[in-house]
């Protein structure tokens, strides 16, 4: 059955591009032997923004074998060089791209200890003006591509009895944001997925972290079609979010807000939704 919102497949999109052979660093370990001193991580959305900042932060820390994925091959290679990582440029909404990325990652760095799912896009404007193909695109990248990749990597973590999945959400998914209806819905789905998956994984040794940033100083706003023009709240740096991700991984935190005061509007909405909605309608 073809949905009215189905994205046209006749228009070719970016293709999965494996890195040059000299950029890949396949592991040479005997079967069944795993280096316990070096951890492995896959970061998506790593060609810019939060994903790039997380990649660089992990690279600075050392002790990580990193594979980075993103749609912009040129920028991704630059970030990979900064982080001493391996790049794999891919559009994860394309059929089979998630499997190719997973297979490449396992062949290059071995079983994954940490997945940071940072790939995401937005769209700004009234819902009635949003083109149907952009609805599909926002949901495909923010939700479906993330869930498919987690589904592929999670069995290895469960089998190993350790690992962590970090899902980059948004304040928009916690409270809803005017003129970002579909993006808010997508990030709300990510947050609910994080909660439900965490319950299922209890006792397996695998953790799930939901990172909830507010306004972040990245190219995200220009790409969504409308720059951020408010004086408050002030944007935080992508590096601040990356440090929060690192801290959450080290301390095993389930949910992190960046900045921390964002917990307040989320709690007000949960405790007194009517009051919150009246304030949001007035102050936007």
Give a brief outline of the structure.
By secondary structure, this protein is of the alpha/beta class. It contains 10 helices and 9 strands.
Describe this structure in words.
The protein is of the alpha/beta class. The chain has one domain (37-283): Rossmann fold. The chain has helices at 49-61, 73-83, 97-109, 132-160, 171-175, 181-200, 220-224, 238-251, 263-271, 273-283, and strands at 39-44, 64-70, 86-89, 114-117, 163-168, 206-213, 216-217, 236-237, 255-258. The strands form 2 sheets. A 7-stranded parallel beta sheet has the order 3-2-1-4-5-6-9, sandwiched between helices. Helix 1 (49-61) runs parallel beside helix 2 and helix 4 runs parallel beside helix 6 (181-200).
Per-chain topology:
Blueprint: E1 39-44, H1 49-61, E2 64-70, H2 73-83, E3 86-89, H3 97-109, E4 114-117, H4 132-160, E5 163-168, H5 171-175, H6 181-200, E6 206-213, E7 216-217, H7 220-224, E8 236-237, H8 238-251, E9 255-258, H9 263-271, H10 273-283
Parallel strand pairs: 1-2, 1-4, 2-3, 4-5, 5-6, 6-9, 7-8
Helix pairs in contact: 1-2, 1-8, 4-6, 9-10
